[in-house]
């Protein structure tokens, strides 16, 4: 087995630096207070600041310290659930609106990266690998459905015997290659969004955790240990972390801890792992996902835990999933390992709501945050500015309360995830 990693988050070595932002120092006033300097919060702050509003973003750590700066960096076009599932759950018209929303988010993300010259190494190309024959048939049927009903011409169905042209991954029965999917450095994207928001006039207060949200006669008060912010509107973001701040988030979003490792640069071996600089994810319920970086490393994520902290043996857990897929990496050095808290919902759709006049929440992207979250922040900002046409597409998604309430939701989730993990192995 490869040696365990000595380094932490690989992205800290690749993302351009962002100067530290002063913590809040005493009370303040704003048009909008935003909780969380991640994808959603920064997308909202950028849009609002460009419109001339006074915006303060509070972040309990540094910019990108949460889910936005530690994730797999994958760009999956569409929503987290496939269109046939959405058509059944919400009807063809709503499913089409969700498809159009996701594609607008996709276009806007790449446009924004170009306009702001965000050095986040975006790459095109995404494989979805089927770990059972029946799931390959489902993938192929989804691709055909998208081509027929949504005009999707960017998908290629790959039979099992053709897989070696794309990847040396073992144990898969076929795949779909998405030419419009891809990957990027998520911490670099987060810092780039922050720099753009700052340039537009927003204020970001790092090391300033939000502790309470309360309505006042004229609007809202956001409490922090470093002073309170009086604002007309509050936007609460942060995947999996804000259930205590806004109880409705805890009712619908479960925090989980994911973990990842990165290999040393693979040299000629990189082509045997992935034939191009693209990303891949499989069809397991507890998904394996990986991508090839610009310098030829493999970044691999797999497994998750349901406590509040990164387990000490997380790198071994990842390697136990990685090596059966890539046995050729048995002697490769693992240089980095990291993880953190993400948020999931039971249907794997984000929980986006206007809970009360002047109070918005967005959380639980369930692995789809790189593409959807910045644009959803923009949509929230547009709603604050008086145009809720985009946001309305997301605010009535069917995201039920987690079963078991706040007391039993975690043991029930653990039992369910262990069951699905067993099915994955079988």
3D structure, described in words:
This protein has 426 residues and is α/β, with parallel strands linked by helices. Helices cover 35% and strands 24% of the residues. It contains 12 helices and 17 strands. The chain has helices spanning 11-14, 39-50, 83-90, 92-115, 133-150, 186-200, 247-252, 270-273, 314-325, 369-384, 389-395, 405-425; strands at 28-35, 55-58, 74-75, 123-129, 155-159, 174-183, 203-205, 212-215, 220-223, 229-236, 254-263, 279-282, 288-292, 298-305, 334-344, 351-356, 359-363. Strands 3, 4, 5, 6, 11, 12, 13, 14 and 15 form a 9-stranded mixed sheet that branches. Strands 1, 2, 7, 8, 9, 10, 16 and 17 form an 8-stranded mixed sheet that branches. Helix 2 (39-50) runs parallel beside helix 6 (186-200).
Structural class comes to alpha/beta
Characterize the main sheet. 9 strands, mixed
The helical percent reads: 25-40%
Number of helices: 12
Multimerization state: single chain
